[in-house]
Write a structure and sequence with these properties.
By secondary structure, the chain is an alpha+beta fold. 47% of the residues lie in helices and 15% in strands. The protein is built from 13 helices and 7 strands. 38% of the residues are buried. The model has no long low-confidence stretch (mean pLDDT 95).
Length: 258
């Protein structure tokens, strides 16, 4: 675990992340709950993720989860009729038509009802066990490098992501990567932006733990040249310099003086 902890810290330093990489462990009914971790009550999954990305070890179960949509996605409870009908999303002002809301929930990736006992969320830098999924929530540019590293790991295959701009942290960044065993990116959603401290310029992605080592090694490679060069905005500086030179060459006041 010490190697994993160290690598997580290195990634956070390379990308200058302001929050921690989060591990999500799916605790099945036959599993024993981890000794570490505070069991949360009346919390949404996105709020549990928020606590973990700020350094806490937390556990969320069927009794403690507050969001009915996330509860249904993780198989803790059935989706309420008010949501499955689409009426709830119209009520929130998210969609204009109930049929649109229905379609969004029908396309939602879910886990079988009753399969999980709980979810354990923790910062990777202080992990004591291997996670199933790693979730990163930070500024878009920083997550872009994780996505590029993943693309390198997969040999250049284009990344295809799925989102309904609904359930960004629970479905998009956690369940899809777990079920489909691939990285998935999201733009965020109404719920997590309302219920957590995620910034306007921040978003979220998740990927299977099995890809972590390759992503770490590739980020080290990218940090040798690509990341510092891109962040240095050298091409932009050259453009501004050329524009300044053109303006200087065609200075009307200078021409009048001549």
């Amino acid at each position: 675990m010490k190697t994993l902890n160290k690598q997580a810290i290195q990634i956070q330093e390379i990308l200058t992340m302001t929050s921690k990489l989060v591990g999500v462990k799916f605790i099945h009914n036959s599993d024993t709950l981890p000794a570490t971790g505070k069991t949360l009550n009346n919390h949404r999954f996105c709020q549990a993720l928020m606590k973990a990305r700020h350094g806490e070890h937390v556990i969320l179960n069927a009794e403690g989860i507050a969001c009915p949509a996330a509860a249904a996605a993780f198989g803790f409870k059935k989706l309420p009729e008010g949501l499955s009908s689409g009426k709830g999303l119209v009520g929130f002002g998210i969609v204009t038509d109930e049929n649109t809301g229905q379609a969004m929930f029908k396309g939602m990736e879910t886990l079988p009802l009753g399969e999980l006992k709980a979810l354990y969320l923790f910062p990777i830098e202080s992990a004591t066990l291997k996670p199933d999924i790693i979730v990163a929530e930070d500024e878009t540019e920083k997550l872009m490098w994780i996505a590029l590293a993943y693309l390198n790991v997969k040999g250049g295959k284009r990344i295809e992501s799925s989102t309904a701009i609904l359930q960004a942290t629970c479905v998009d960044a956690t369940i899809i990567p777990f079920v489909q065993q691939r990285l998935n990116m999201s733009m965020g959603c109404y719920g997590c932006r309302d219920a957590t401290d995620i910034g306007h310029n921040e978003t979220v992605l998740g990927f299977p733990y099995t890809d972590f080592e390759g992503i770490f090694e590739t980020l080290e490679y990218l940090n040798q040249k690509a990341i510092p060069n891109s962040r240095g905005k050298n091409a932009l500086a050259m453009l501004k310099q050329k524009e300044a030179e053109i303006i200087e060459q065609h200075d009307p006041f200078q021409e009048q003086n001549e």
